[in-house]
Amino acid sequence: MNISLAGSSVQPRCMDITEDVYLMCPTYDDTIARVQVDTGTVVFDHSVPQIGNPSGVTITSDGSILVTDRLNKTLNLVSSKGVWLKQFWSAPSDGDQDDELLSVSTHGTVCVCVTWHGSVYVLDCL
User: Which InterPro entries does this entry report, sorted A to Z (predicted)?
Assistant: First the structure.
């Protein structure tokens, strides 16, 4: 199913909202987009060469973006301007089971979330 944001050409797989009220979205054409919520204006919509198939997304407390990559089976840190910063390999963790989730974004079999305490969880249900 393709979902269009009113007033924009972006077709998000999933989305998370920033504190300054922008949507961050990995898209069906393998780009990462930042869209202004109230107008649908696309601030940027571009591919990040290090990410083959962006699917899940969540915003960290400093405004950076965590993006799961289903093709490369990695978790990537991207700046709020869409610039790739770092890659992490996903690994199981017993983590803080009592933390509340700050945000969760899913698409298909992959999701990523950040707790209020900053713990990051990646779920791969393949």
Answer: 6-blade_b-propeller_TolB-like
Tell me the residue range of the domain where 68 lies: 16-124
On whether residue 76 sits in a domain, the answer given is: yes
**How large is the average pLDDT for residues 31-46?**
87
Question: Any idea of the CA torsion for 76, 112, 33, 109, to the nearest 10 degrees?
Answer: 100
What CATH number is attached to the domain comprising 104? 2.130.10.10
Tell me the one-letter amino acid at 78: V
Q: How far apart are CA 80 and CA 34, in angstroms?
A: 8
Locus of tokens 């069906």: 28
Residue 8 included in any domain: no
